[in-house]
Amino acid sequence: MRVLITGGNGQLAKAFKKFFEFKGIDFKAFSREELDISCLDAIISVIKDYQPDVILNCAAYNLVDQAEENFSQAFAVNAIGPYNLALAVENTNTFLLHFSTDYVFDGKKGNPYTEEDKPSPINKYGLSKWLGEFAISKVSESYLVFRVSWLFGEGKQNFLSKVLNWIESNEMLHIAYDEFSVPTYTETVAEISWLAYEKGLRGLYHLTSRGYCSRLELTKFFLEKIGIARRIIPIPASSFNLQAKRPFFSVLDSSKLEKALDIKLPHWMEVINSFAKKIRGA
To answer: What angle do the packed helices 81-89 and 40-50 form, to 10 degrees?
Structure first.
């Protein structure tokens, strides 16, 4: 078994690398500089040399606000990249495992989104991710696409990392109370998505923790678990005047995956507590 990982320096790739090391699975991770997935020839060359059984596409342009002005870059990584990967593995024995986002939805449904709900992104990042998963579905039959939400883990490009930075120089935090989704641990994604691959699942699935919360609830719970006290001021998300619109309620329903694997995914409080213990060194 050989696994090729794109976006090798990202937080999701780091979780997979630790998981594969623990499992004794042969893998090779390529950083964005080492493998540009927007270049089809580069992908074909790497596949020819390494001959992987599975490609894990962890490469992503996830700068949500910057994508509004740099859509060409977001499109290249999030849409053209997955399309190229799907093309490259066609007529080979290589399987493609790709990750998308809750931001493919507009957040107006009011209830958790299922895989049957029609995407309707309200920002260019979400659009680029939706185009990527759409391209894969039109090119390949040998794939798994997982939509994840509010991903956190060993990395800097996530909300909890930002919270940790904010508390270093602020006694008071302003946090949105009206933005809801599901905090999902990269370790959960690595473990469960690989289990799904081994069980032979194919197609599109949602993969998140159970339950959901607001940014405000998440921040309060996280700070409590790491033993940090800060004054938190609830404000509407619109107060931040960000370039990109965010869906207010982008909760994903992962019951299809739970049923297919006969498992119960961990609750978001459980995974936040596990993450907090690592931060505390407990």
So the answer is: 40
Q: Which of 61, 113, 125, 205 is catalytic?
A: 125
Give me the domains of the chain, ranges plus CATH numbers.
2-151+183-209+251-266 (3.40.50.720)
Instruction: Specify the pLDDT at position 281.
Output: 74
The residues with which 206 forms a beta bridge, in sequence order, are 147
Share of the chain above pLDDT 70, in %: 100
Amino acid identity, residue 13? A
Nearest to 184 by CA among 217, 211, 204: 211
- Residues in the chain with pLDDT values less than 70: 282
The 8-class DSSP code of residue 249 comes to: B
DSSP per-residue string spanning 27-85: EEE--TTT--TT-HHHHHHHHHHH--SEEEE------TTGGGT-HHHHHIIIIIHHHHH
Are the beta carbons of 181 and 134 closer than 8 angstroms?
no
Please choose, from the candidates 76, 81, 77, the residue with its C-alpha nearest in 3D space to the C-alpha of residue 55.
Answer: 81
The side-by-side arrangement of strands in the sheet containing 95-101 is 26-29, 2-6, 54-57, 95-101, 143-148, 203-206
Q: Is 125 a catalytic residue?
A: yes
